[in-house]
Amino acid sequence: MIEYNLAQKDDMKQIANFIAEINRKEESHIGYCGTDREEIENSLMEDITDIPFQEGFIVAKENEKLIGVLGFDSDLESNSAEIWGPFIIEDKWDIAAELWDKMMKILPNEISSISLFVNKKNENCIQLATNLNFNKVSEETILIFERNHIDKLQNATIIELSGEYNEDVQSLHDKTFPNTYYSGSQIIDRMNNHRKVFINIENENLAGYIYVEVNPEFGEGSIEFFAVDESERGKGIGSKLLTMALKWIFTFESIGNITLCVNSENEKALKLYKKVGFKEKHQLYYFTRAFG
After folding, report:
1. Which of 44, 87, 186, 250 could potentially form a cystine with 69 if both were Cys, beta carbons 3.0 to 4.6 Å apart?
2. Which residue among 99, 133, 167 closes a domain?
3. DSSP assignment of 214-253, as one string?
4. 100 within some domain
5. Which pLDDT tens digits describe the chain residue by residue (292 residues)?
6. Do residues 207 and 121 both lie within one domain?
């Protein structure tokens, strides 16, 4: 008999390991959930906060064996939620609909949209999204840069942002990313030993910037924002900025690789990242569904 229950804190390690194992296979891979048990456990514990893990995840067990997990990471400020899963062992996909129904019953009423980030090879989940009337918004490419490729990076002098160019960075950022999660001034305020802005200067004018963050404790690094002034594009400045960022990120020994997501139709960006040394890792579909 299959039992469906809310996840328990005591089961967090087991659930994180279950998700990690299933998410390593492209045929059952879900984006933004990770493949490392410790990283997933940390996300469940520290990142999923608006609705805690034990109130937003459903587990399915058969004869006390874990066979399925499905949950959500909600953002109540934006009335949205990202769906984690379904993560189901290969021969039990027939429980997906029941898992989904159980999860929907605990989804907060204020959530007006949900999203799924699904590997193109995850046919089961793509079919589920279709059956549930999700809309495919975009196709995305996940790229990865491995630490063992840093010796192949071109030479580039790392130039950190100084106060002299703060306003220029803010202006370029806000112009390039007018509606995003950090404004230009917020990026400046966030700068510290683990959050850096690197810049390229041409004829004493700001030509471009890149904002990166690292979390050495968990071996994580990310390229958050990156822009080149329109008048300076096509001069190799993007490659220089990426090189600066990667060289700095990999000064932290705990970081083994960097991954990033690029819209698959953005051929210029894909070409630039691959030129610097990023390799394609996954192709994913981004689905959304609105309520009300």
Report:
1. 87
2. 133
3. EEGGGTEEEEEEEEE-GGGTTSSHHHHHHHHHHHHHTTST
4. yes
5. 899 999 999 999 999 999 999 999 999 999 888 888 988 998 898 888 899 999 999 999 999 999 999 999 998 988 999 999 999 998 999 999 999 999 999 999 999 999 999 999 999 999 999 999 999 999 999 999 999 999 989 888 899 998 899 999 999 999 999 888 889 999 999 999 999 999 999 999 999 999 999 999 888 898 999 999 999 988 999 999 999 999 999 999 999 999 888 889 989 889 999 999 999 999 999 999 997 6
6. no
